[in-house]
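idk why but the lab printer keeps eating my pages so im just putting this in chat instead. protein + S-adenosylmethionine:
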Amino acid sequence: MSRRPPVTTLFLREFCTKFETTGAVTPSTRYLARAITRHLRRRGPTPIRVLDCGPGTGAFTDRIVEHLRPGDVLDVVEINDAFVRMLQRRFATEPRWQAISDFTNIHNLPFQNFDAAEPYDFIISGLPHSNFPAITVAEILHSYTRLLKPGGALSYVEYLYLRQIRKTLSRGSERVRVSSVEQLMLSHMSEHQVTHESVLRNVPPARVHHLTAPAGGAGGNTGTDWNTLSA
Ligand SMILES: C[S@@+](CC[C@H](N)C(=O)[O-])C[C@H]1O[C@@H](n2cnc3c(N)ncnc32)[C@H](O)[C@@H]1O
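predcted complex ->
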């Protein structure tokens, strides 16, 4: 029988081999998981649709499963095959995860290529936006807008000071990329009601951004100028 690596070992291994997409050395803490699921915790009695983007080994998923019940839908979108295998194992073996496995779907593909028949009430994302080319960030933001219900909540993470440090230290094309990503994120935020909370008990310390889509619908416009973006 093959020996499987524990969650933190697997995460570190994937960070070393796939730095750009993994984006952190270790899974998020329970404090960050609690903060990012704040809106979900206040769900009402009607069935909900939840999208978990970039779950890695399942730090946020482990909180999400606590708040779901039969009739809900959970879609999980993860690009990394090793993380997908870990998630499949957790849904098959951990009792709290097993309880919702019948209405959970794991999708192994880049989030920006993911589509769904219906939009979601809650999108919870661990994607490391600041690592990606601007064109990828634009596609991801467009997907959030497309997949979030009017009045729905999108919550994602940004590591504290990382953006400022990168802006200060980077040069040339990397500096252009960092500025373009920042402009895209700010423009996308400006189309939503936004609240923020800092979580210091995480490695690295993080800030959670909670964005609420306008109740009338965002109309699929992210404010992105697609023509000015370079990879
Ligand atoms: C910073 S880790 C966060 C993992 C987990 N949510 C946590 O907080 O511990 C980023 C995760 O996003 C995944 N990822 C990166 N780019 C992705 C993409 N384009 N589509 C789907 N998943 C992606 C990575 O494989 C990784 O699991």
